[in-house]
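Appendix B. Chain record.
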Amino acid sequence: MEIDLLSLVLTLTPLDVETGKPLPRWWGRAAHSLLLRLVAQTDPALANDLHEEQGLRPFTASTLMGRFPNHALDRVQPYHLRFTALSQPVASILLNAIQPGGGLAPGAVVELDELRFRIEAAAYDPTLHPWAAASNYQQLGAAHLLAANPAPRRVALQLTSPTTFHKDGRMLPLPLPELVINSLADRWNSYASISFPAEVRRYAAECLAVERFDLESRVVTNKGGGIKVGAVGSVVYVCLNYDRYWMSLVSTLAAFALFAGVGQATSMGLGQCRAVSGEIPAPAAPDHVSDS
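Structure tokens predicted for this chain:
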């Protein structure tokens, strides 16, 4: 199977625990830089394109996830970092990097904001980590568009890092169904070989509604002092006017969220998202989406 959708979860141990250096308020920019350095080692032209590209990018990078007792690194508990790819070139580089001797292979040392971490494990197998996965657009689409059973009337999403949207010149930190579907459709149509029709956006706006939610607002502060406010937690959308075809597209895009993220600045750690089933889970604990 050719992989062009990848969700890679790294387990890391900090090596520089007592440097006295202030920790980043948000690790998303450092993770973004680490990924671009990794790409540059293999494909400098692609790294330059990714750096210069405006708007959507074919990857996401999470913030550093774990506990930060007293705004310091924990000596005992491991940390996690997640990279996703939305294109075959980026997926291939990440997969090669976790092979023995690669820059993200177990045992390798990486830097985040000039602090060293040793990689203990790298997983893209969902049996090893719930946020790990590997697929391609054809396989992901077929699982929902060609399914024997009708698509469900409800779609539930879990947002584990602050999620915000750009609407009418302003930032809107609410996961309204039309904003979520628009964001996912933009990314799908930018990188998949087969585009989804524009009407899926109209269907989301007119026929999907928020049924339940368990959301909190979180603030992310960057080095320059700028802030972004986003929502974390869970939300369930229900279809008010059911159509099997359109809901199969919505279900596909919801599954795609694991790789694509949702909303603004997903390459800097915001908008980490996945579809979930059953009861909506509680919001992520603050230390797992730390902005400290």
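Further analysis of this model is presented in Appendix C.
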